[in-house]
Design goal:
single chain, about 160 residues, mainly alpha, 11 helices
Length: about 160
């Protein structure tokens, strides 16, 4: 199925088409309402059904841990002020209202004197396990505060070697 056809599909129809791939990939860890929300986020960006299921992988690991692929990890550690970026994201997500709008990390990054586009790949890697993916603030919201914070803290601890 090509990207143009996917974008013409209604979300429930797209969910039904992608669900078999998700069930096979995530098994018992699949949460269908969360998956439906992820499919809605992937709808405009997706080029294949399998890609949609893969983009949602970070949501269904079965734990608060996400494996960060090596290329994304290298990009994360090369990010200017990466520890300050992660600390700012952790602080912000610890106290903000839990809405997508309130989770927006751009002001916290701007306060560090950095451009958000330079810092976002590191935050994507910490949260989703790769340096790009579903919209970041929506992804953090879908994960939930505890899981998202655990992932950011784990990335921060890994940088420190602890």
């Amino acid at each position: 199925m090509n990207a143009e056809h996917i974008r013409r599909m209604e979300i429930p129809e797209l969910v039904a088409a992608v669900l078999p791939f998700a069930v096979e990939r995530y098994g018992q860890h699949l949460d269908v309402p969360t998956f439906e929300a992820a499919v809605a986020l992937a709808h405009e960006r997706a080029t294949t059904l399998i890609q949609i299921a893969e983009q949602a992988a970070f949501l269904f690991t079965g734990s608060d841990v996400v494996e960060i692929d090596s290329e994304s990890w290298e990009r994360l550690v090369a990010t200017e002020q990466v520890t300050a970026v992660l600390d700012a994201a952790i602080d912000h997500c610890s106290d903000c209202d839990w809405t997508v709008e309130a989770i927006d990390l751009r002001p916290a990054i701007d306060a560090l004197g950095l451009k958000a586009r330079k810092a976002m790949p590191a935050l994507y890697a910490a949260v989703e396990g790769r340096s790009s993916g579903l919209p970041l603030f929506d992804s953090i919201h879908l994960l939930g505060r505890d899981c998202a914070l655990a992932r950011m803290r784990a990335a921060r601890a890994r940088i420190d070697g602890t």
